[in-house]
Amino acid sequence: MAVAVSLLGCGARCPEIAATQRALIERTAVAPGPHVQVRIPLARANTFIAELLRDQPLAVPIELPSLGPLTLPIHELTAIAREVRIRPARPDRLRFAMQIELADAQGPVTTLAIETEVTPVIVRDHGGTELVAGFGPENLIAVQPVLGPDAERALGAAVARWLPAAVRDRLPQGVIDRAARALGTHLTGAAYQLLQTTLLRRLGEITRLRLRLPELPIARATLRSSGAPDEALTIDLATDLPVRQGLVADGPAGDEILVRIAGSTAAEIANWAIDHAYLPAHYTRSLEPAADGEFRPRFDDLAEDHVRPIKIHVFQERGGCSYFRVGLRLGIQIAGDKLEVSTLDQRVEAARASKVIEIALWLSQLVQGSVDRSRKAAAQIQLTVGGRTFTTRAVRAAVAGDELQFALRFSSDALPAPVTPVVR
After folding, report:
1. Are residues 170 and 313 in the same domain?
2. Are both 21 and 144 inside the same structural domain?
3. Do 247 and 392 fall within a single domain?
4. Are residues 396 and 250 both part of a single domain?
5. Is 38 a domain residue?
6. Which label site among 99, 182, 307, 405 has the fewest CB atoms less than 10 Å from its CB?
7. pLDDT tens, 237-257?
8. In total, how many domains does the chain have?
């Protein structure tokens, strides 16, 4: 049912209404962040990297040196990139853990484990903001690779296998053990230095992460990771919008990407979208968007009002002087691909109006448009791993306390073109 407000002329109240509007528009204080938070389970990101390595296998040959008193027949090992995983790290860092399999013609011999921490960078380009993280030779120089468990025995068995039987049968075991240790030193030394410029360089390129952040006026982005059992990468975003209160705690764990938006941030996103023409700024009395419309909305969120935290201020800027404020709380859900918004406990909390205004119509459409803007901001998140882009769609939405939560699911674009499996 439409709610109607009808008051007598308010000419004397126009300065008061104008002051109310200025107080809202000219607010500049910004609450501490985070204002928006993105949480990505590391298992999700690592699955994407694993798919990429499966589709783009990387390998490079390693020539074998003389091993002490032994000169091996012409032979080589192959270094094969088997795994890259993102691991928890210090604040504002990402840790990449790599497993490089060392194999000969008969199969795996041992593994080379490499870990490195990198500092992601924020890149702003063409109005967008991306968090970029990857490793290259410059990140790996100071990293000491580690051979897999029981490597000396495995390398000794490989050395023995490569020798002619007549030679192998006459050699003391100690000679083969010394050759295995020399081979291990070579693999973690000179051979590893060469791998940095071949296999590892290419591996860093195809596993480079680019996380496109929501199209918002982002002032700061900080990154942190959590350990077992719920390993996740969390990006905290602070805007320069006049947010009254940011997020007050971490969100729930889960296996989907979670975007949390503080209620006041959602209100200011709507105002920002109106100010930048992403949403209509003026409306007619029947709420038709129109450049010459009489009415302009302004959103606010007061977390301390637990019953009706969301405030919608509507000002008549043309053809008269009127104002009303409605308080309400939200209910949201996603049904299929559609965002459904319900307004609860709505009440006209203040009114300065000279004509009847149909408030219910305003609420049903204004709130839907403003919340949908937050949903679209969340779904703008895009993850690129190497050359493959994973786009997102919101699969779940909820109001939790004084925040909006959107669960996202990534889907991959077309597979990249096949590549040569051996990098030289």
Report:
1. no
2. no
3. yes
4. yes
5. no
6. 307
7. 999 999 999 998 888 888 889
8. 2
Same domain, 99 and 60: yes
Whole-number Å distance between alpha carbons of 370 and 373: 5
Q: Is the pLDDT of residue 416 over 50?
A: no
38-96 pLDDT tens trace? 999 998 889 888 988 888 889 999 988 877 776 666 577 899 999 999 999 999 999 99
| pLDDT value, residue 305 | 94
| 412-417 LR contacts (CB < 8 Å, sep 24+) | 412/48, 412/51, 412/388, 413/388, 413/389, 415/55, 415/388, 416/55, 416/56, 416/386, 416/387, 416/388
- The answer to whether 206 and 58 are in contact (CB under 8 A) is yes
Q: What's the rounded Cα separation, in Å, for the pair 139 and 121?
A: 14
**Residue with token string 């669960």:** 407
Q: State the pLDDT at residue 310.
A: 93
Going from the C-alpha of 421 to that of each of 61, 79, 103, the distances in angstroms are 12, 11, 15
Amino acid in the structure at residue 419: V
Task: Single out the residue in 186, 206, 226 at which a domain terminates.
Answer: 206
On whether both 330 and 401 belong to a single domain, the answer is: yes
> What is the number of alpha carbons within 13 Å of residue 147 lying toward its C-beta?
23
Residues in the chain: 424
More confident residue, 268 or 348: 268
First-to-last CA distance in the chain? 73
Return mean pLDDT, the chain: 85
What is the pTM (predicted TM-score) of this model? 0.84
Domain containing 312 equals 4-30+241-411
**Which of 193, 202, 158, 189 has the alpha carbon at shortest distance from 176?**
158
pLDDT, position 389: 85
- Say if 349 falls within a structural domain: yes
204-236 per-position pLDDT tens digit:
988 898 888 888 889 999 999 888 888 999 999
Q: What is the mean pLDDT of residues 113-118?
A: 91
Confirm whether 420 is domain-assigned.
Answer: no
Q: In sequence order, which ranges of 115-150 are alpha helices (DSSP H)?
A: 137-140
CB 267 within 8 A of CB 297: no
| Preceding amide of 34 cis, omega within 30 | yes
Looking at the structure, do residues 181 and 314 belong to the same domain, yes or no?
A: no
Pairing of strands 257-262, 36-41: antiparallel
Among the three residues 161, 187, 206, which one is the final residue of a domain in this structure? Answer: 206
Predicted confidence (pLDDT) at residue 424 exceeds the cutoff of 60: no
Is residue 112 included in any domain, yes or no? yes
The answer to whether residues 333 and 379 belong to one domain is yes
